[in-house]
Amino acid sequence: MQRAAAVTPRTGLAWPHARLRTWGLSLGLGLGLGLMVMAGMAQADANPTDLTEPPPGEPLVINGCPIWPYTRCPGADLRHANLVGKNLTGADLRGAKLTRADLRGANLAVANLEGADLTGARLNKATAANTNFRKARFVGTDLEAARMMRSDFSGAEFIGCNLEITRLDHAWFVGTRFVGNDLQESKFNQVNLQDAYFEANVIRYAIFPSSNMEGCTGCPGGWE
Length: 224
Description:
Blueprint: H1 2-46, E1 61-62, E2 65-66, E3 137-139, E4 157-159, E5 177-179, E6 197-199
Parallel strand pairs: 3-4, 4-5, 5-6
Antiparallel strand pairs: 1-2
């Protein structure tokens, strides 16, 4: 009787301990799995899938607009499009919606973007020589180090944009509005600023040699 009594307490204590160990193991596995899932979701958020890229060997088409030189896409919806380094030479993008599009390093030479909306777009180091930007809208657009020589910006508006060290030689800005932009070190060599409007821009080290400023309001003096 005494021996049986001695075994029973040990046996009775062993069962709940085993159950607790099982619960602990399950809880640990569950927490570990949850952390792995959360880590995977965080990685996916940090590196979202680029849905605009086509399968290898196929051309890029966004909302029905083929992305290649001399494409014809007037009024195209290219908002938030990834167009980094794309060749859009001679493209017809009149009235296109390019809000927050990424055009860094893209080639827009001799393209037609008349009336296009480039609000929040990124055109750092883009090439847009001899391009039609008449009546285009640039609001919060990043144009740092872009090359936009001999382009026509007549009737366009630049509001809160970054045009640091942008090349704008021989461009036309007839009736163009510049409000609250960073124009530091930009090059306005021999440009046409007739009837343009300047207000609250940062123009430190920007140059305007031999430019036409007839009828311009707020244009920097001493460059005529």
